[in-house]
Design a protein that fits this description.
- The chain is mainly alpha-helical.
- The protein has two domains: 141 residues, no CATH class; 61 residues, no CATH class.
- Helix content is 67%, strand content 4%.
- Strands 1-2 form a two-stranded antiparallel sheet.
- A hairpin with a 3-residue loop joins β1 and β2.
- α3 runs antiparallel to α4 and α3 packs parallel to α5.
- The chain is globular, with a radius of gyration of 20 Å.
């Protein structure tokens, strides 16, 4: 976890030179969510001896941020000590290939989560290149669906209550996102995590 935090600190500072803080939160949070999702779905099929395991850490979110910035500016050159000049897309490809090669060797679940985070970072950056807003995308992901008109002529939904419930639901989502931005996803309670997952499915 310490290594992930250290890597996130340096990668995050570089990321914020080209993206907003809200974009950083979106990349990181969705990287963790979809990394965990791929872990849950794929582990039983990829692992040599599937068993009950725990997924700990935020490496999927870090990978999403790293691959996201590499997708945005692939030809950006970095000078690394003992290595020399290397482009971001070289780093991205190396990370993905290493995770794929290690899938059947060790820490299968962790590498699956990394690949889920990498896919998330790549897809989000390609959406930005198409001119789409990540804030709009994220808002739609957790947006409360509006109820359609009722077929019955005897009772209609109270517009005041509908607006009040929607506003309260969205306010709760914003509070949780602020908490993630300040303290990290791991600080959420299980109830808050379940609330975000259920909101994303609506």
């Amino acid at each position: 976890i310490f290594f992930n935090l250290l890597l996130l600190f340096y990668v995050g500072k570089f990321f914020l030179q080209f993206f907003s803080k809200r974009d950083f939160l979106i990349y990181y949070f969705l990287g963790v969510v979809f990394g965990g999702f791929l872990f849950m779905i794929g582990y039983q099929y990829v692992a040599k001896e599937p068993e009950t395991v725990n997924l700990v850490g935020a490496s999927a979110g870090v990978t999403a941020v790293l691959i996201g910035i590499a997708t945005k500016i692939p030809n950006y050159a970095l000078r690394l000590r003992f290595i020399g000049t290397i482009k971001l897309w070289h780093i991205a490809v190396a990370i993905v290939l290493l995770d794929i090669l290690q899938l059947f060797v060790s820490n299968t679940g962790g590498h699956l989560a990394h690949l889920g985070g990498a896919a998330t970072g790549f897809l989000l950056s390609t959406q930005l290149d198409k001119g789409k807003s990540l804030s709009g995308f994220f808002s739609k992901l957790f947006q409360v669906k509006k109820q359609g008109p009722l077929k019955t002529v005897y009772k209609k939904p109270n517009p005041v209550n509908t607006v009040k419930n929607s506003s309260s639901h969205q306010r709760k989502i914003d509070e949780i996102l602020d908490k993630i931005s300040k303290s990290g996803y791991e600080t959420l309670t299980q109830k808050e995590k379940d609330f975000l997952f259920s909101s994303g499915k609506k």
